[in-house]
Amino acid sequence: MTRQEVERLFTRRDGAYRFARWGRPVVPVIFGVEEATLSVLKGACEAVVALAGHRMAETDPEMGANLMIFFCRDWAELLQVPDLDGLVPGLDGLVARLEAAGANQYRVFRFEATEAIRACFLFLRMDAALAEQPAQALALSQMAQIILLWSEDAFATRSPLACAADSRIVLRPDIADIIRAAYDPVMPVAANDPSHALRLAARLR
Description:
Elements: H1 3-9, E1 19-20, E2 28-31, H2 35-52, E3 67-72, H3 84-87, H4 91-101, E4 105-111, E5 117-125, H5 128-131, H6 135-146, E6 161-163, E7 169-171, H7 173-182, E8 190-191, H8 195-204
Parallel strand pairs: 2-3, 3-5
Antiparallel strand pairs: 1-8, 4-5, 6-7
Helix pairs in contact: 1-8, 2-6, 7-8
């Protein structure tokens, strides 16, 4: 990928470049799915974290879990989750905006003082579009989108997934390479200067 292509993946709608990766081990907890789907999601999380060369843990010392994934059939269900409004301030307004937009997914990130990712809340409304996706594809796509702070439109027109020669669903090689490069120990945990994209692109080559 060229520098310009990499830069677009982290350039937000307001024109600002913003990159961040996780600074602490990832500790997932998942709500609203059956046991079989739970194991698929956790397996995808482990695979993407391993690809990045990052770490997982059993518990986060401050939050218990720092990657919280909520599945629902209707956005209004989120208002019934105990204490969720304490974790996601302005939950009422967020639910109203998601309903008005007809959205089926939303991610809320929290950051460290270093601007590294501290926590992520992932909300998925299982509409027809998401429900028709194989569980493995849905899980891998979502985990790829939480391992870094991508632009809101990074995958609007092209999925982060690809189909391997043996018909397995995998991450696109270019996206996998970016994730690996982003977690290179010599790279910063966060960046707001587009020159960061040049450093990423150099590691892809």
